[in-house]
Amino acid sequence: MREVAIDPRGTWRTGISITGLVALVAALLWGIRVGAVPFSAYDIWNVFIAPASNEAYQIIYNIRVPRVLVGALTGINLALAGCILQGVLRNPLADPGIIGVSAGAGLAAMSVMILWPGLMALVPAAAFIGALLAAGIVFLLSWDRGIQPLRLILAGVALAAFFGGGMSALMVFHSDKVQGTVNWMAGGFQGRSWNHVQMILPYSLIGVLGAMLSYRYLNALQLGDEVAKGLGIRVEKARFFLVVLAALLAASAVSVAGLLGFVGLIIPHIARMLVGSDFEYLMPCAAVLGATIVVAADTVARTIFSPVEVPVGIFMAFLGAPFFIYLLRKGMQR
Amino acid sequence: MNHTIEAQSITLGYGSKVIIPKMDIVIDKPEIISIIGPNGSGKSTLLKALSRLLIPLSGCVLLDGRDIHTLPPREVAKIMAILPQTVHAPGDMTVYDLVAYGRMPYKKMFEKLDSDDQECMAAALKATGIRQMLHRRLDSLSGGERQRAWLAMALAQEPRLLLLDEPTTYLDIHHQLELMKLVCKLHQDMQITVIMVLHDLNHAARFSQRMIAVKDGLLFADGPVEEVFTVENLRALYGVETTIMTIEQGGSSHLVCFPHDSCLKQKA
Fold first, then answer.
1. Any chain A CB within 8 A of the CB of B81?
2. Domain ranges of chain B
3. ipTM above 0.95, yes or no
4. Measured between alpha carbons, how far is B158 from B265 in angstroms, rounded to an integer?
5. Considering only CB atoms, which residues of chain A are within 8 Å of chain B?
6. Which one of A229, B87, B127, B197 is most buried, counting C-beta atoms within 10 A?
7. For chain B, give me the number of helices (H) and strands (E)?
8. CB–CB of A278 and B135 under 8 A?
9. What does the pLDDT read at residue B107?
10. Is the pLDDT of residue A324 over 80?
11. Nearest-CA distance from A7 to chain B in Å?
């Protein structure tokens, strides 16, 4: 039965993969080249071939490269977390915020920045712990012989409101110190270094590995709990591990990038419009797309009003939301 | 090999709400078995328990003598396939994708589909008559075609037991009939045991060998169609007066019922 094996979508998928990877490499190179001091491809080549402690090396190796890498890894993590959550919760509005990650990270980071400004260096760690704590509380609230998707969403919304109240309280009672927190809350990559790369990289690796291990479970869960159980999936167990994976991915992303919205929600939708809802193709596509878009957007955000840097979160919301609405309308006509 | 499902004094319900207080059933022959009964009688709940989707509050369901909930889920999936009443799948999924899921119980973590799997899928597609729709998207199929695609997924599991919950619900009479005939043919060709919840009594009477009638969570009647499908039983089950006749069609005969009057339930 040869005819069974040939899938007409193969060519399209290969094309998308190649285009995506080329776009990602281009975005990374572009991000390294442009800025207050522009460099040529030749300069970049030299930094890696013949490292010399000149100005070009300093800027490229210690500032630009870590920055684009943090951006790319953040994009990967948020996009994968969004894919997983939308699949597991079978809800198109699910994003890393829905499991309490953003609210937990926000409150923890803000507390450190406002109450203990001397410990500024601990902000990423605090955000990471806050994010995981919040996700843990949401898990506990939604637990009934396994994570119940609807309860998880409602618990997440409630917790986000509660922590949001905490953030507002901090802002009201310490209105003089709010200034320093605004940039972090908007999300961005200003001054990100190799330390940040080290912080997020392990989780990106876990995420990519987890995505490769779990795409079949995500696919089966799309068919509903009953069909998935009928196919021999341990639904509750699979759902638990997937949500934990998403929590780790999202928590590591917010710890280095701040509250970068949009990516986790919308990149999975764009990827779905491109390659369809099969997670075997959806997750790699979303990861590459997320990385490309975050890196490109960050590069634009820091150069467009140079020397003023626009936080990339703001920039992406302004460009991304209208683009998404355009895609939605186009998709609906089909 | 012949497989046996046995429900041993199962109590079924959701949370603290008991739907079926206590029931015993043995299914040990490759027959077509219909579960009938009025709305809310517990038919679907019973089917869910037999198909391990619902854990009994007490008692147990045995598959070949072993508790179905302690058996490895994948091993059960190689013996038993389930088609719930309402199913949903992403619209851009193709028939091929859907049927490929039926091979999941046979695949390890990174294992790709091999030629055995392809053959199995081809057989399932052929049996359900949708081979030419292989690369069609599910959202481009009609209700009847889509139901066939789901059935093909279940068949790709190479099950010996097929459990269907009201498989004809959203179909018109033409497609209802086609589906019932298909199920009947699958049973005959492959000696699969079919257990299904049916609302249409005439389909149940025509296509099954055994009928299980459930009323208010209790086993009301269980046996060959001719014994269960009687005017007295239908009156007691549904509170409806019927006439039951034998109809000759194309060389075979089967029972049909005509409901004509609802009657007050007689209380003893």
1. yes
2. 5-262
3. no
4. 45
5. 1, 3-5, 7-9, 213, 216, 219-220, 222-224, 226-227, 229-234, 276-278
6. B197
7. 9, 12
8. no
9. 85
10. no
11. 7
- B202 to chain A, closest Cα gap in Å: 28
Buried b / exposed e over B114-140, threshold 16 CB at 10 Å, is eeebbebbbbbbebbebbebbebebee
Q: What is the pLDDT of residue A6?
A: 65
CATH architecture under which domain A66-333 falls? Orthogonal Bundle (1.10)
Residues A222, B82: C-beta atoms closer than 8 Å = no
| Between residues B75 and A49, the one the model is more confident about | B75
**Could you state, in order of their start, the residue ranges of all structural domains in chain A?**
66-333
CB spacing of A223 vs B89 below 8 angstroms: yes
In the 8-state DSSP scheme, what is residue B85? Answer: S
* Fold of domain B5-262: Rossmann fold (3.40.50)
Give CA–CA dist A246/A83, Å, rounded.
9
Model confidence band, residue B265 (pLDDT cutoffs 50, 70, 90): low
Query: How far apart, in whole angstroms, are the C-alpha atoms of residue B89 and residue B92?
Result: 8
Residues 6+ apart with CB under 8 A from A243: A84, A85, A88, A99, A139, A147, A152
Does the beta-carbon distance from B135 to A220 stay under 8 Å? no
DSSP-derived secondary structure letter, B67: E
